[in-house]
Specification:
The structure is a single chain. The protein has about 800 residues and is of the alpha/beta class. Helices cover about 35% and strands about 20% of the residues. The protein is built from 25 helices and 31 strands. The strands form 7 sheets. An 8-stranded mixed sheet has the order 4-3-5-2-6-7-1-8, sandwiched between helices. Helix 11 (about 360-365) packs across helix 12 (about 380-395), helix 11 (about 360-365) crosses helix 13 (about 405-410) and helix 13 packs across helix 14 (about 420-425). The longest helix has 17 residues, at about 130-145. It is elongated, with a radius of gyration of 40 Å.
Length: about 800
């Protein structure tokens, strides 16, 4: 029977004859993974070159190779082979090589031209893994450099893809489409579902379907925790002929095969899967899909340097992929546990927008290329990329100019995360490479131990003494052995597992952690995050840890520690001294005394402190400036004359701001922000806050006025003014406008209001009674004499008969005292 993709093969073949890029959009079940490479194998433009087919997962790669080999009547490793971590089957006769996506990056490292390959196929590109995006960007870049005469053709295949945006990136590449769903799928919707009710409602839907529908079921859930919870709820609710089978990426290959192979005659399966089952795999016997509508994705937080799990709604494209699983083998049905009216995003966010970019950054360093020089469908975001570069600098992979080091070159050659690569390489200097390889194998794979606490030594002991028949042990030993081969380490000396914490600190210096209190399960990490052990974890009595694996979900303030080792802080003074930073810290005690100490820290975690008896001048001054910056200037030795001087300058700045000389800003706000500019040169060494009174504040402030402003200040904003009586009266600049408070009788004969600043600012006169009580406030003295003075005279003449109250104040002589006292 011809598969649906066959109708798209002629236009696809024609497109690749005419162009070096093409896009194939084929719905689930179309057969694109196996049929397209075989159909292109004998094309003249390919000649004797190979086809390289990228698959997002190991199981999909094996199955694709196996199916194509079966169609050719051959064994895997002949015309069709595969290559992946710890496993490969290929030969000199291999023409189609199926690889997992991460393998492409390492192949490009060895040969950027991909000599011998004529076609590069990205299968299921809609999943937008970090390795796929990096592989595509590097392939396009290397092709432009090395394959100009005989270009490497690139084909992107997907069931659901934003093909328009991708075609534009690939120079308007042709898009070929194929219908793929051979059988109709009926879709039934549910009601709005909260995460709390997800597992119970999913269990009810599964039971209802088992009672009324035929065939096996494929159930999509966010993660392993929900899969285990659903299995517990279903185990006593389904009949004996129903097999409950999990399917997720961390399962052993044999268990994954069990999930996708047909059920035995007379049995049905309920395959409980994460999004690993959305594409690539045909799960035999499935006629029903139950879709919870949720997925769990890791997101990297550049603020903490850690990846956290986010549970989120699936995209519309993912929902369509999931529904398509029900129609591959016959008419099917999909139960969606959300209302039909609910709006889903069109596509899932690509991994490059939410992942740890450390591996990507290291590869680009090795290529000597900046991200902006490459073609991306979505370029790496600046904050996470800078976080990755900071990590690589800390690990010694590059210098501060972003140039890769010899150590970085060696790190990039190892097929592990840069953290683990750094640990593996550095371990050789200490003769601990065997232990480092064991640790790297454990950390690069799934945790082989469940519910045994966080101590990594439990895993190391399992690796050393466990049976190959135990889950994952054989694979971990193979991986550790591969790392030893890569390091060319043939040593067989005993492994000192007590040094595991030292090696883990090489990989995770930002996760060295100190216990918050004796016997507690809470720790503070060097990166500032909080994390905790389980209540019954044996490690909770350890004051120091280095955390290898931890996790959390969005909204959680604290992460849980899943794997860690005891850490000896003495290592920070010997082997790991480059991680220890020294800080001279000055703190003000409640009694006002300045306490100065030296603190030794790893990141944000305090290792130890030493009190300093001799007060360092610079540290003292910095502490004073910091305290004043936080608490204000009120404890400085101000007096009224200084405050008035300050206000005089502020007044002139406001009025004469446009003058060429310019009056500086010396407001409290400016002074507090710029303490190091004006106060620092006048600071003595201070060990107690009461000594702030010893500061020559007047000299510090007056120093802010360059010549000739001090002289102009006295001219334009004098501190005092002489009134008609001859008295020299102070002006109060603390008000706006400035105030001149003077007895009314002393102003006789003064027609106009006194002014400052070249007449631009008229003073606000507070005209006082003989008892110096306010009678009138005015900026218009002439109007006061004409309109208000007669009324004031009538009221005050009887109250102060000894003082003059002339009918014509403008012609009267000003008086300081009574009539008899003369002037």
């Amino acid at each position: 029977m011809l598969l649906p993709v066959h109708s798209a093969l002629p236009p696809l073949i024609q497109a690749l004859i005419q162009r070096d890029e093409a896009i194939l959009v084929a719905a689930p079940g179309a057969g694109k993974t196996t049929q397209v490479p075989l159909a292109l194998l004998d094309e003249p433009w390919l000649g004797e070159q190979r086809i390289l087919l990228l698959e997002p997962r190991r199981l999909a790669a094996r199955m694709a190779a196996q199916r194509m080999a079966e169609l050719l009547g051959e064994r895997v490793g002949d015309t069709v082979g595969y290559r992946m971590r710890l496993d490969s089957k290929e030969s000199a006769a291999t023409r189609i090589l199926v690889v997992t996506e991460g393998v492409l990056t390492r192949m490009l490292q060895g040969d950027p031209s991909l000599e011998g390959y004529g076609l590069l196929i990205f299968d299921e590109y809609h999943e937008r893994s970090l390795d796929a995006d990096l592989g595509l960007a590097l392939s396009l870049y290397s092709r432009s450099l090395f394959r100009q005469e005989k270009p490497l053709k690139i084909l992107l295949m997907s069931a659901t893809l934003d093909s328009q945006a991708l075609a534009e990136m690939l120079n308007d590449a042709p898009v070929v489409s194929s219908e793929g769903r051979s059988y109709p799928v009926s879709i039934q919707y549910g009601n709005t579902l909260s995460l709390r009710d997800l597992v119970p409602e999913t269990a009810n839907t599964v039971c209802r379907s088992l009672a009324q529908d035929e065939g096996s079921l494929l159930v999509f859930l966010p993660g392993q925790a929900e899969i285990r919870a659903l299995a517990r709820q279903l185990e006593n609710r389904v009949s004996d002929d129903v097999l409950l089978v999990p399917l997720y990426g961390d399962l052993a290959i044999d268990e994954q095969r069990r999930a996708i192979e047909p059920a035995a005659p007379g049995f049905r399966k309920v395959v409980m899967a994460t999004n690993v089952a959305e594409s690539s795999l045909t799960i035999e016997g499935v006629r029903v899909v139950v879709d919870s509508g949720y997925t769990r994705a890791p997101k990297f937080d550049p603020r903490s340097g850690m990846t956290r799990l986010h549970t989120q709604k699936v995209s519309r494209a993912s929902a369509d992929q999931r529904a398509g699983r029900a129609g591959r083998l016959g008419p099917g049905i999909t139960y969606r546990l959300w209302p039909e009216t609910e709006t889903l995003t069109a596509f899932s966010e690509p991994e490059i927008a939410q992942a740890d970019l450390g591996p990507l950054a290291l590869q680009l360093l090795r290529w000597g290329v900046e991200p902006q020089a490459l073609e991306w469908l979505n370029a790496p975001r600046s904050a996470p990329y800078q976080q990755a570069m900071d990590l690589l600098l800390q690990l010694g992979a590059c210098n501060e100019c972003g140039q890769i080091s010899a150590h970085g070159e060696a790190m990039a050659a190892l097929p592990v995360h840069p953290r683990l690569a750094h640990m593996l390489l550095r371990s050789q200097d200490w003769g601990m490479s065997q232990l480092a390889c064991d640790l790297a194998a454990i950390l690069a794979d799934r945790d082989p131990v469940n519910d045994a606490g966080a101590d990594v030594h439990v895993r190391l002991n399992l690796l050393a003494t466990g049976s190959d028949r135990q889950a994952g042990v054989k694979r971990l030993r193979q991986q550790a052995q591969q790392y030893r081969r890569l390091l060319k380490d043939g040593s067989s000396h005993a492994v000192d597992v007590g040094m595991a914490g030292l090696l883990l600190a090489l990989a995770y210096p930002d996760r060295i952690a100190r216990q918050r209190g004796v016997g507690t399960r809470d720790y503070v990490l060097a990166n500032g995050r909080a994390a905790s052990l389980r209540d019954d974890d044996p490690l909770r009595n350890k004051p120091w840890l280095v955390v290898a694996q931890l996790g959390g979900r969005a909204g959680q303030a604290q992460d849980q520690i899943y794997m860690a080792a005891e850490f000896d802080p003495q290592w920070l003074e010997s082997e790991l001294s480059n991680y220890l930073s020294v800080h001279d810290i000055a703190e003000w005690r409640d009694d006002g005394k300045l306490l100065i100490e030296t603190q030794y820290r790893v990141g944000r975690v305090l290792v130890k402190r030493e009190q300093v008896n001799a007060i360092d001048e610079q540290v003292s001054k910095s502490a004073v400036l910091e305290w004043l910056g936080e608490n204000g200037l009120s404890e400085l030795p101000w007096d009224d004359s200084l405050r008035q001087w300050q206000q005089r300058v502020i007044c002139l700045r406001a009025v004469l701001l446009d003058e060429p000389d310019g009056w500086p800003d010396i407001s409290d706000q400016w002074l507090q922000r710029n303490l190091d500019e004006w106060l620092l040169p006048f600071l003595p060494v201070i060990s107690h806050r009461r000594q702030l009174q010893k500061i020559d504040l007047r000299a510090a402030l007056h120093n802010l006025l360059p010549w000739p402003l001090p002289q102009k200040l006295d001219e334009l904003a004098p501190s005092h003014i002489t009134v008609p009586s001859g008295s020299r009266v102070a002006i109060d600049y603390g008000s706006n406008p400035p105030v001149l408070a003077v007895k009314l009788q002393e102003m006789f004969g003064q027609k106009t209001t006194p002014a400052i600043a070249q007449g631009r600012v008229r003073l606000l006169l507070h005209l006082l009674s003989p008892a110096r009580k306010p009678l009138q406030m005015t900026q218009d003295l002439e109007s006061f004499w004409q309109n208000t003075y007669p009324e004031v005279k009538r009221e005050m003449k009887g109250r102060y008969p000894k003082h003059p109250w002339p009918d014509d104040p403008l012609s009267a002589a000003p008086k300081r005292g009574t009539k008899k006292q003369g002037v």
